[in-house]
Design brief:
single chain; 71 residues; alpha+beta; 3-stranded antiparallel beta sheet; 1 helix; 30% helix; elongated
Length: 71
């Protein structure tokens, strides 16, 4: 699986929301994945990014380049 260079936001979910971790890619609206651990969520969101990009291209939507952030 390719590793995409989009910034991933990791968030711990409350027990009311099912617990675990959520990974979101704010640059790609609606692109997210969840899992039991932050590491799993970050890994799983790579598939979500690939699917988001594939669908965007299929419908003619522009795919933003990953934002460059200062270290």
């Amino acid at each position: 699986m390719p590793v995409h260079e989009y910034r991933i936001i990791l968030e711990q979910l409350s027990q009311e929301d099912g617990g675990g971790s959520l990974a979101q890619v704010l640059q790609l609206p609606g692109c997210m994945s969840d899992a039991e651990t932050p590491e799993e969520a970050a890994h799983n969101v790579q598939d979500a990014i690939a699917a988001w990009i594939e669908e965007a291209r299929a419908i003619g939507r522009e795919v933003p380049a990953p934002a460059r952030h200062a270290a």
